[in-house]
Design brief:
Strand order of the largest sheet: 4-3-7-6-5
Radius of gyration: 56 Å
Number of helices: 21
Distance between the termini: 146 Å
Oligomer: single chain
Helix content: 55-70%
Largest sheet: 5 strands, antiparallel
Number of strands: 17
């Protein structure tokens, strides 16, 4: 009974020390790398001391313990640093115990430490496996019992081997194996935990989306990039949900169809997916989907890696578009292209280059000098620049063509050619010749059109007179010039004309007739005002017409106003709504001060005042209002 109690005690010590190593492994992991073997050695030394204090007796006088397990484990897993304390503890306690087996015990201890250190050295560069651990257990069992071969008499070997050696070796083998497997398993668990932590950190830091789903398309794992793509607040809010919770039904259905196809095929699938994101922009994803299988090989879900390639797709589309455009441009090139070396010798030309210069096409070939081409172009009358061919003209043209830049020249047949020169890598020049005749003609047409548009912008559409904008600009300019002229100012007249009782005319004859009446009056006034070559006649607004008369005095201004009034009266246009019976006009006259100090607003006010007086005095007449200064003096 004592045998089993002590044996179980030894095994319990082995189990306790092993548990300390496994359950305390997180604490050991926080130690410095060089301190970890020392901590292992301390625990193994304690275990060695405990089992040597609890020896078990196999035969009379034969006491054994499991010290070799602790020595072997510390040597194999910790190396020389870890085995020192257990080794010293075992040697010290065995020598102090004395007895006839001291020498054998010391030899066994040293053999165990040495053999396991050798195995540690052989395994250091590799991975600890169960097979190598069995080898360690065998080495411990052998080194702990080999001494019996030399110390037991041959006559007793038949009794000692089955009674001591075989059982003790088996106990050493089993205790070392289970202790080593427990430590190995814990180390593997820690390694896997660390690897998982590293993988998790990598996955979370990955800018691409990585997630896993079950067979129903629900998220079971995801990284922050996936949550960002789905516009989810966090990863936890994704778990248990599907694409349908974040995308429109048609997009979610498309994603789900791809996943179901993958599940049916059971093979990884690489696809490119385009969809409209939650923010309304088009998104391209390069998606890798792979099945997740259990230990039986059954598909239990799928893992998805999404990489956004929107910018790449845009770049590819832009590149494809550019290539297409370039191909179209080359195939339909209408320009002439010529390349010359540094001395001006033609190296390359296309057919359009010859078509642009038909009179010298026969000499514009590879190997010809540009100077010879220019000389013959002048001699044959193709170049309009010169009728003769002085050498300095050729030299100047040659230098111009070979210098980077753009120039235009006209041929004798009237065509305009533009030459764009760029430096070539060999020091020569590449010249692109373009027929810009149409552009030149369009430029002329554009100038004409702009002139016409400018006229439209300053012309009243109904009467054909200058409009209010043109009137304001002209009055501003003429008053400015009058001020600048000062003493030399010849005077500036302003006539404000209003059609008498025009509202009654519209009410009587209708607005179309009123428009026709205004057009006729405008033509009449313009013709009558033509006696002054610089007069500006403009429609001021409604039925009001203004006339600016630069360089006139009071007598001339009043004379022209009377002429205009009489001209309208002389047209004898019927007006049943007027007491005159015909269409008439009233005119107010204003004149700038002799020194040009009158402001435009003063002129307008005076002309309007004169017009008011003309209407108040019976219409169909001309009145000049008193100048602003005179009216102010009269009021005083």
């Amino acid at each position: 009974m004592t045998l089993w109690n002590n044996l179980l005690g030894n095994l319990a010590v082995v189990a306790i020390c092993t548990s300390l190593l496994t359950f305390g492994n997180p604490w050991f992991a926080r130690l410095h790398r060089r301190a970890q073997p020392l901590a292992l050695g301390i625990i193994m030394a304690c275990g060695t001391a405990c089992v040597m204090l609890l020896p078990f007796q196999f035969l009379t006088g034969v006491y054994l313990d499991l010290r070799y397990t602790f020595i072997g484990i510390s040597a194999f897993f910790g190396g020389p640093i870890a085995v020192v304390l257990p080794l010293v503890t075992a040697l010290a306690m065995r020598i102090s115990a004395g007895g006839t087996g001291v020498a054998t015990g010391v030899v066994h201890i040293l053999l165990t430490a040495g053999s396991c250190l050798i195995l540690w050295r052989l395994t250091k560069a590799g991975t600890v496996t169960a097979g190598r651990l069995v080898t360690v257990a065998g080495a411990v069992a052998a080194s702990g019992t080999v001494g019996f071969v030399f110390t037991v008499a041959v006559s007793r070997w038949g009794v000692v081997f089955p009674a001591v050696v075989a059982p003790f070796a088996s106990v050493l083998f089993v205790s070392t194996t289970f202790s080593g497997l427990a430590i190995l398993q814990e180390r593997r668990r820690v390694l896997i935990t660390n690897e998982n932590r590293i993988y998790r950190a990598i996955i979370e830091a990955l800018p691409d989306c990585l997630n896993a789903k079950d067979l129903d398309g629900r998220f079971i794992a995801a990284n922050p990039a996936t949550a960002a793509l789905m516009k989810a607040p966090s990863v936890s809010t994704l778990l248990g949900k599907s694409d349908a919770d974040f995308y429109p039904a048609e997009i979610a259905a498309e994603f789900h169809a791809v996943e179901q196809d993958l599940i049916r095929q059971g093979k990884p699938l690489m696809v490119e997916q385009k969809f409209t994101g939650l923010d309304g922009r088009d998104v391209w994803l390069a998606t890798l989907k792979a099945p997740i299988r259990d230990e039986r090989g059954m598909i239990t879900g799928l893992v998805t890696h999404n990489r956004e390639i929107t910018e790449q797709k845009r770049t590819e589309l832009a590149l494809a578009t550019a290539r297409t455009r370039l191909a179209d441009a080359v195939s339909n090139m209408a320009d002439g292209l010529a390349m010359f070396d540094g001395r001006g010798t033609l190296l390359f030309r296309n057919e359009q280059y010859l078509a642009l210069f038909p009179l010298t096409a026969d000499v514009r070939d590879v190997g010809t000098s540009l100077k010879d081409v220019l000389r013959l172009s002048i001699e044959r009358g193709e170049d309009q620049a010169a009728s003769t061919c002085p050498e300095d003209t050729v030299e100047r043209s040659f230098a111009t063509f070979m210098t980077p830049g753009t120039r235009q020249f006209r041929l004798a047949d009237g065509r305009w050619i533009e030459a764009r020169t760029r430096h070539a890598t060999d020091g020569g020049a590449m010249i692109v010749f373009t027929d810009v005749t149409a552009a030149k003609e369009a430029e002329v047409d554009l100038k004409v059109l702009n002139t016409h548009l400018a006229g439209l912008a300053t012309t009243d559409a109904l009467t054909g007179l200058s409009n209010r904008r043109a009137f304001d600009l002209a009055l501003d300019e003429m008053t400015r010039k009058a001020k600048e002229a000062g003493e030399a100012n010849e005077g500036l007249g302003l006539l404000m004309i209003d059609v008498d009782r025009f509202k009654a005319y519209n009410d009587t004859y209708g607005h179309p007739a009123g428009d026709a009446c205004l057009k006729a009056i405008a033509a009449c006034l313009a013709e009558a005002a033509s006696v002054h070559p610089d007069a500006v006649v403009a429609r001021y607004g409604g039925e009001e017409i203004a006339v600016i008369l630069p360089g006139v005095g009071e007598e001339q201004a009043l004379h022209i106003a009377e002429r205009l009034c009489a001209a309208v009266r002389g047209r004898m246009m019927p007006h049943a709504g007027s007491d005159k019976g015909i269409v008439t006009v009233s005119i107010g006259v204003a004149l700038s001060s002799p020194h040009g100090g009158q402001r435009r607003d003063d002129l307008l006010t005076e002309a309007d005042s004169g017009l008011y007086s003309a209407k108040a005095l019976g219409r169909d007449q001309v009145q000049r209002a008193a100048p602003q200064g005179a009216r102010r003096r009269a009021r005083r």
